[in-house]
Amino acid sequence: MSEEWKNKLYYGDNLNIMREHVVDESVDLIYLDPPFNSKANYNVLFKEVNGSSSDAQITVFEDTWHWNMESESTYNEIVTKGTKKLSDLIQALRQFLGINDMMAYLTMMAIRLVEMHRVLKPTGSIYLHCDPTASHYIKLLLDAVFGGKNFRNEIVWHYRRWTASSKKFQRLHDIVLFYTKGNDYTFNQLLTPYTEGSVKRKEQGILNRFKRGEDPVLVSDGKLQAEGVPENDVWQIPFIPPSAKERLGYPTQKPEALLERIIKASSNEGDIIMDPFCGCGTTISVAEHLNRKWIGVDITHLAITLIRNRLHDAYESELLPYEVIGDPKDIHGAEALAEQDKYQFEWWALGLADARPAHDKKKGADAGIDGYINFFDDNTGKAKTIIISVKGGHVTVSQIRDLKGVLEREKAVIGVFITLQEPTRPMKEEAAASGFYIPEHFPKMKCPRIQILTIEELLNGKQLEYPRLNSETTFKKAKRKQKGEVDEQMELEGF
Length: 495
Ligand SMILES: C[S@@+](CC[C@H](N)C(=O)[O-])C[C@H]1O[C@@H](n2cnc3c(N)ncnc32)[C@H](O)[C@@H]1O
Known about the structure:
- The protein has helices spanning about 15-20, 70-80, 85-95, 100-120, 135-145, 195-205, 255-265, 280-290, 300-315, 330-340, 340-350, 395-410, 425-430, 455-460, 490, and strands at about 5-10, 25-30, 40-45, 55-65, 120-130, 150-160, 175-180, 190, 230, 235, 270-275, 295-300, 320-325, 355, 370-375, 385-390, 415-420, 435, 445-450, 450-455.
- By secondary structure, the chain is α/β, with parallel strands linked by helices.
- It has three domains: about 5-190 and about 235-325, Rossmann fold, CATH 3.40.50; about 190-230, no CATH class; about 330-370 and about 375-470, Trna Endonuclease, Chain: A, domain 1 (3-Layer(aba) Sandwich).
- The chain has a nine-stranded mixed β-sheet, sandwiched between helices. The protein has a five-stranded mixed β-sheet with strand order 14-15-16-17-20, with helices on both faces. The chain has a two-stranded antiparallel sheet with strand order 3-4.
- A hairpin with an 8-residue loop joins strand 15 and strand 16.
- The two termini are about 45 Å apart.
- S-adenosylmethionine binds near residues 35, 253 and 298.
């Protein structure tokens, strides 16, 4: 597998993807952060990589699981074809919980955990991220699938955030359940460096405070460890602050520091890491950074598009080649996607044009703007904007006029109209009549102010026309990563 290995980003339901594409015992480490049963619709506030905020909102996915025909048939499959332990457990849970959203969520998780167990190598580990709403039920599922004896840790990720008064204690942690497939598993002990105070005490020869009930972690076999204290199961890692460059605006985005710990502890360079609910790609980005191979899966084109942007911004030319699987590769696939779900189609088309998704369709905000690209063509540090409009259905000249209006309103320099259908002659004429944007520093470059591109042209490699300065010459750039370098700053950027 390793010689011709390419990292993989799959669009689709992870159950099908794992069943159809991931072979038995091929993955070293799985991290999953499935949507909780929290009944929340996540709105995304998009932030540009240069820190300027767009007021765009997108409803990503409905984090609600309802009992339906699919849950019923999955339940039947687990009961009739699953192991006895899992079959017994899921029936007991149904008896206890009844038929409701929580049961639907657990059923959907159970069938996927079975696949994760199958694809994990005998030396592999799994880390399941959840919150206290469902962690106690999920732990039972993990016991049934991986075996209670393979439970290693319940990691508490403790963070700080604004609190609100309520008649209970403030909830300031998530749970990460760590299981292995067997007894012989990869584990690299992580050490937390001693504090200055500890080092001083060490120098003064005060080693055995343990006996007095003080600082027990300083002592191992009566001696201070050389490089630091073995990492414990309560991790103080800040939430990604709103101003951090790391933040992409995906509502459930996890800090890279959290994934760094997991990946360093439970894998080595060259190992394969899989995240079957990969969201905006935190696991993928950290795996790439730490020279691991990776497989990411997500059910929205929004996530896939964000990950593509994230990887290219962070690693540029150092990014190893990767495949995107499951997204339309030809015009027929594009037509099918447009028919099936217009939002998914738009997010996918924006990815094809290397653009960023912009607004909340459901709320109808920012009418006429589906995506945008910010670019630099001078040294003022102020980005220029390209506004993108995507159409999967019938197109008319009035849409080009509308795009011109939006361009003026938003003070954008270029408007791009992406269409599945061929544009009509009046549309092309209207676009041509808009003239050119000529960058001050690149007078030879005449970029049509309104550009019409068909999906077919984009699939054939045609590109938008605008100045593409390489990042070394841009003045405010995305946080770029050096492969393998430890990013100490990550933890410092927090509260
Ligand atoms: C909580 S988010 C993950 C966030 C991620 N850890 C990050 O740092 O960005 C859960 C993700 O799972 C995806 N998802 C939900 N159901 C899925 C399924 N059946 N197959 C694949 N992805 C799914 C959602 O689209 C969402 O992006």
